Amino acid sequence: MNSNNIIFLRKASFFSSAVTYLWIFLGGLVRVSGAGQSCPGWPKCYGLWLPPSSISEIPAGIDVAGFDPQLTWIVFIYKYIGLFVLLSVGFTIAVAFQSFKYVSKVFFALLSVILIILLDLWLSLSLFSVNYEPFAITVHYILSLIIASILVYVTTQAYLIENPQSEEKAEYPPSSQILFSFLWAFGIIQIALGTRVREQLEWVSGQLPLLGRQEWLSEIGSIGYLHGLTGVIQCIVTWAIGYWLLKNSKKASALVTNFMNGVMGLMLAQILLGVALFMAGLPAVVQILHEWGSSLYIGLILALYSTFVYKNSLKTEAALNNE
To answer: Contact at 8 Å (CB) between 107 and 93?
Structure first.
C-alpha cells in the first residue's frame, strides 16, 4: 500500500468535508436571513460576474426589488462554494483512484457523492432562479447533509487505513454499527421535521405578518410540539447509546471516545437551543446555531459509524483468513 496516497486521500477528503460544511453553514445563513432571491441568475448575479454594490451598477431591465448588497454577496459566495464542493470531490476521486485496490468501497462512495452533488446543485440553482419553494429547500438541505455524511465516512476510513494502530486494541459491542446507523437516520428525520416547522413558520409569517413570533409558534399546530418531543427522545436515546457504548467497549480509541462525548454534548446543546428558540421568539442567531449543531451531530455520528464499519471489516477478513 502506498502510504503517501492514503495520506493524500485523507487530506483531500477532509478538505472536501470542511468545504461542504461551510456550504451547509452558509445555506443556513441564507435561509435565516431570507436572502434566497438576493442573487438572481447563474453564473452571473443581476447580469454581472461580481455582485453589484449599488442599484446603479445593475443593468437596465433587471428587477431590483429587494436588492441588498450584503445579502447578494452571501448568496453569491454560497453558490460558488457549491461549485467548489463539486470540484474538490472530483479531485478527491482522482486521488482515491490511485489507491483503488485498497479503498475501492471509498472510491464508489465518492462517485455517489458526485451524482448527489450534481442533483443538489441543480436543485439549488432552480431554487434561486425559478421557485423558492420550502419543500424543495428541505430536500436541498437533506441532500447536502447526505453529501457531508459520505465525505465524513470517507475521511474516517482513510484515517483508519492510514493509522490502523489507533483501533488495533479496541473492541466495541457487535451491534454498534446498526445502532449508529439508526441514530443517523433518526437525526435526518428530526432535521426534516425541523425544516418542516420552519416551512410552516415562513407560511404563517407571510399570511399573518402582524402576529408576534411567539404567536406564529402557536399557529403552526402540532408539528412544532412533535419536533420538540422527538428532540427530547433523540437526546435520551443518544445519551443511552453513548453510555452503553463507552461502558461496554474495551480499550475504546481516543477517536471514538472524543467523538461520542462530542455527540452527547451536541445533543444537550441542541435541546437548550430548541428551548431558547421557543422562549426567545425565534431569534435568527439561535436558528443558525441550532441548524449548525444538527449538521455537526450528523457528521460525528457518521464518523463513529465509519469506525465500526472498519472494525467489522477487519473481523470479517480475519475470519476468512482463518478458514
So the answer is: yes
Let me know the angle formed at the C-alpha of 63 by 59 and 67, rounded to the nearest 5 degrees.
Answer: 90
Per-residue pLDDT tens digits for 247-299: 999 999 999 999 999 999 999 999 999 888 877 777 888 888 998 999 999 99
Q: Measured over all CA atoms, what is the biggest interatomic distance in the chain, rounded to whole angstroms?
A: 76
Sorted by where each begins, the domain ranges of the chain are 1-162, 172-323
Q: Quick one: fold of 172-323?
A: Four Helix Bundle (Hemerythrin (Met), subunit A) (1.20.120)
Q: How far is C-alpha 155 from the geometric centre of its chain's CA atoms? A: 15
Q: Which pTM was predicted?
A: 0.86
In angstroms, rounded to a whole number, what is the distance separating the alpha carbons of residues 297 and 153? 13
Closest C-alpha to 46, from 82, 23, 71, 25: 71
Q: Summarize pLDDT for 162-202 with one digit per residue, the tens.
A: 888 989 889 999 999 999 999 999 999 999 888 888 777 77
Q: Distance from CA of residue 13 to its chain's centroid? A: 15
